[in-house]
Design goal:
The protein is built from 14 helices and 10 strands. α1 packs across α2, α10 packs across α11 and α12 packs antiparallel against α14 (350-357). It has helices at residues 31-39, 61-69, 85-90, 100-104, 124-138, 144-148, 159-175, 180-193, 214-220, 244-252, 267-276, 308-314, 331-343, 350-357; strands at 4-8, 14-18, 23-24, 49-55, 75-82, 204-211, 225-230, 254-262, 279-284, 290-296. The strands form 2 sheets. The chain has a 7-stranded mixed β-sheet with strand order 6-5-4-7-8-10-9, sandwiched between helices. It starts with a strand and ends with a helix. The structure holds S-adenosylmethionine (SAM). S-adenosylmethionine (SAM) is lined by residues 25, 56-62, 81-84, 87, 213-214, 231-233, 238, 240-241.
């Protein structure tokens, strides 16, 4: 927990930097903006009962942005996978919408960029639903105090959500025993909380959390999904979650119209998705620049397919996938075995491919 360094990102939402991994969890230009631009696909036609698989849930920006954007869907279930429970518990309490005061907090590391105009937001009801779900799932284990009283995080926490969290803690843990507990809490919730926000709480919104290595959690899942987010650290930092064997598991869990969304543009990732059997395309921003990848079993879900040049590039050595047959190898083992495969491969290198054809 103490190895995180929080900072305000360019759109006013909070990002984290991990001293342990020497990597950022969120983009400096805007943690929330990134979630909306890469993981909320406005072109998707969604039905009224949606199942979402959020791999590397972290602070939950992707699921929260998705829920906020699709507020008219009546039934949504999020299955959220992360190895770190502290982040999950922290997720509803972290500020997502900036105030002027937030900008006065000096950025603490080189990743922070301050002052971008903020276009996206998360309504309070999304975090409230999350708090309710977390208390239901983790019960006594919800050690709110140690998280919310941590001075290091104080400037980055949402005061209103802390109040609501403490309210839950009081009623849930101290006063009432199961099964009366659920009924009372339910009544309190509807009477006091649901009235305050313009949201239909009759909706069926459920978050399930799997706290473990995603390679173990994924084996427990059987139901097909409509949407999958893959937001792991980069391929060289976390090869475990980009291997063809892990992506095969995602293919198994994708229904026929499922879309898998990731921020990665990497040749390795795109080729791995294709070799698994997905159709693959680009996620484009407003300037038509590729900012991520979309994959689906259904070709018609791919609005921006890869060009012939880009497809050719995938079939160079750079596209050779990571392998992790039993989903249990270490990062070093996975990286080293790919290195050997690349060195002995007959495929041309990506640099030769680019040199021969010119960079496009
Ligand atoms: C780039 S961050 C994801 C940010 C997140 N989507 C959010 O909205 O805050 C990567 C996440 O991967 C998690 N992680 C790293 N290795 C993992 C593993 N083997 N299984 C599951 N989660 C893992 C980290 O705890 C971290 O939260």
């Amino acid at each position: 927990m103490d190895s995180f360094l929080p900072y305000i990102t360019g759109d006013g939402s909070v990002g984290l930097y991990s001293e342990e991994f020497n990597d950022i969890y969120h983009s400096g230009y805007g943690a929330l903006t990134e979630a909306y631009e890469k993981f909320v696909n406005p072109n998707l036609v969604l039905k009224d009962d949606i199942k979402v698989l959020d791999i590397c849930y972290g602070l939950g920006y992707n699921s929260k942005a998705f829920l906020n954007f699709n507020k008219d869907i009546n039934k949504i279930t999020f299955d959220c996978l992360d190895i770190d429970k502290n982040l999950i518990l922290l997720s509803p309490f972290i500020k997502t919408n900036h105030t002027l005061k937030d900008y006065l907090i000096k950025p603490k590391n080189k990743h922070a960029r301050v002052g971008k105009y903020k276009k996206y937001k998360i309504d309070s009801w999304v975090n409230e639903i999350l708090i309710k779900n977390l208390f239901e799932e983790f019960k006594q284990d919800f050690y709110l105090k140690s998280i919310l009283d941590n001075q290091k995080f104080a400037p980055y926490l949402d005061a209103k959500m802390i109040k609501i969290g403490k309210f839950y803690q009081k009623f849930r843990i101290n006063t009432i025993n199961e099964p009366q507990n659920s009924l009372n809490l339910h009544n309190i919730y509807y009477r006091y909380l649901s009235k305050r926000y313009n949201c239909n709480f009759k909706k069926d919104i459920k978050f399930n959390f799997y706290v473990d290595d995603a390679r173990k959690s994924i084996k427990k899942l059987t139901e097909p999904y409509d949407v999958i987010f893959l937001d792991a650290f980069t391929t060289d930092k976390c090869p475990q979650l980009w291997s063809i064997d892990f992506i095969n598991e995602l293919y198994r869990l994708s229904n026929d119209d499922c879309v898998l969304l990731t921020y990665s543009n990497s040749v390795l990732v795109r080729n791995t998705l294709i070799e698994t059997g997905y159709f693959v395309g680009k996620i484009l921003n407003e300037d038509n620049k590729s900012i991520g990848t979309i994959a689906s079993k259904n070709k018609s879900k791919i609005k921006n397919p890869l060009s012939d040049y880009e497809l050719g590039l995938l079939k160079t050595r750079a596209g050779i996938p990571y392998r992790d047959k039993n989903l249990s190898s270490t990062a070093d083992e996975i990286i080293n075995s790919r290195k050997t495969e690349v060195e002995t491969s007959n495929l041309i290198s990506s640099s030769k491919y680019i040199k021969d054809r010119g960079k496009k």
